[in-house]
Amino acid sequence: MSQPLVNPALLPPGVGDIVAARAPQGVQAINGPAFAELLARTPNVLFSRHALERLQRRGIDLGEQQLHRLGDGVDRAAGKGSRASVVFVDGTAFVVAVPKRTVLTAVDPEHMREQVFTNIDSAVIA
Fold first, then answer.
1. Can you give the pLDDT at residue 64?
2. Contact between residue 2 and residue 25 where contact means Cβ atoms under 8 Å apart
3. What angle do CA 50, 60, 124 make, to 5 degrees?
4. Which of these, 74, 20, 26, 25, lies nearest to 52 by C-alpha position?
5. What are the domain boundaries of the chain?
6. 123 vs 26, 32, 46, 78, 91, CA distance in Å?
7. 99: number of Cβ within 10 Å
8. DSSP string for residues in 57-87
9. If 0-12 CB within 10 Å is exposed, 13-18 middle and 19+ buried, where does residue 35 land?
10. Distance of CA 27 to CAs 43, 49, 104, 120, Å?
11. Radius of gyration of the chain (CA)
């Protein structure tokens, strides 16, 4: 049986439904509460189940500073009226549904070469 990637009890109300994803078969759960604590301190950006899986599979580690920069990038995109944006933080691309402030997927620099980003209306370097 898979384990939660993030402990929903550590998250603000309403956020648990989005980030309390379960690890797919064969993918290990994130150890310790560190990532969940960071997410709880950054309630202005949510992560979809798919995004959490991509972060884990691709070994993308986000620190507090990167999460805050991601949030600032989403704020800037929202300020310009963006609906779907790619926010770049330290070479990692985050596709974000701006009105919902939800990261849909993440692509690290190693996998960037093969990617085509479609249905976005803005790009932000954060």
1. 87
2. yes
3. 80
4. 20
5. 8-125
6. 33, 33, 18, 11, 13
7. 11
8. HTT----HHHHHHHHHHHHHHHHTT-SEEEE
9. buried
10. 25, 13, 19, 29
11. 14
Q: Which two tokens stand for residue 88?
A: 């770049």
Sites in the chain below the pLDDT cut of 70: 1-43
pLDDT for 35 equals 58
How many angstroms separate the CA atoms of 20 and 47, rounded? 9
Distance CA 67, CA 45 (A): 8
Alpha helices in the chain (DSSP H): 16-19, 34-41, 49-57, 64-79, 109-112
- Return the number of other C-beta atoms located less than 10 Å from residue 70's C-beta: 26
Per-residue pLDDT tens for 6-16? Answer: 445 444 444 44
DSSP structural state of residue 5: S
